[in-house]
Design goal:
Largest sheet: 6 strands, mixed
Radius of gyration: 19 Å
Strand order of the largest sheet: 12-11-10-9-14-13
Structural class: mainly beta
Distance between the termini: 30 Å
Shape: elongated
CATH class of the largest domain: Mainly Beta
CATH architecture of the largest domain: Roll
Helix content: under 10%
CATH topology of the largest domain: SH3 type barrels
Order of helices and strands: EEEEEEHEEEEEEEEE
Number of domains: 2
Length: about 200
């Protein structure tokens, strides 16, 4: 992929109709906002230009240039589409807002300075957003991306402050060093892609 800092914007689903349209799960505030960021890029180097886009339930129906029939549309199923991070409109953010993509790479600490790893992904499996943390020599863990669990986000310092109890990393009264280490009771994320998107959050 030619992009230096790719941000996942959509995943193509099934074909829609016979004229080459596809359904797409988007990671933007509104499904049709996918068309606001210019051309989309696949990991294999292909570039996709959106000719038409409309909303259908909680997803977008998209027609791409050069995709003219159902067979061509079905061949794109499962393809992830990205943009360059610099194409996200940072000037539209308020002072206390940020993009999900900005969270990746931040290190999670608690109030004592203990590190719980680096944010390597943002997931949403239907019950609220989750941050994936990866510490050296440990399996990735998921914590809720909530005000109770994530107390502070400092983009300039490259860190987030977490409450390890609210985040489920340790039990109340636990010293954080259980049988399998911090957060050993948390489940690892299923296979999939993180939500690196154009949504802004406070």
């Amino acid at each position: 992929m030619a992009l230096k800092n790719p941000v996942l914007m959509a995943t193509i689903g099934a074909a829609q109709g016979l004229r080459g349209e596809v359904r797409a799960k988007t990671y933007t505030t509104e499904p049709t906002a996918l068309g606001d960021y210019g051309n989309l890029h696949a990991a294999d180097g292909r570039v996709f230009e959106i000719l038409d886009i409309r909303e259908m339930k909680d997803m977008a129906v998209v027609r791409f240039k050069g995709v003219n029939d159902r067979n061509a549309a079905e061949a794109l199923r499962g393809l992830d589409l990205f943009i360059e991070r610099d194409n996200l409109p940072a000037d539209l953010l308020d002072e206390d807002e940020f993009f999900y993509a900005d969270l990746e790479g931040l290190e999670a600490f608690d109030a004592t300075g203990k590190s719980y790893g680096i944010v390597t992904g943002i997931f949403d499996f239907g019950a609220g957003d989750l941050l994936e943390l990866k510490a050296p020599a440990k399996r990735p863990l998921l914590i809720p991306f909530s005000e109770a669990a994530v107390l502070e986000i400092d983009l300039e310092e490259g860190r987030i402050l977490v409450d390890p109890i609210a985040a489920g990393l340790i039990d109340d009264g636990d010293n954080g060093e259980g049988e399998n280490g911090p957060g050993s009771r948390k489940r690892s994320p299923p296979k999939g892609h993180s939500k690196g998107n154009g949504d802004a959050e406070k």
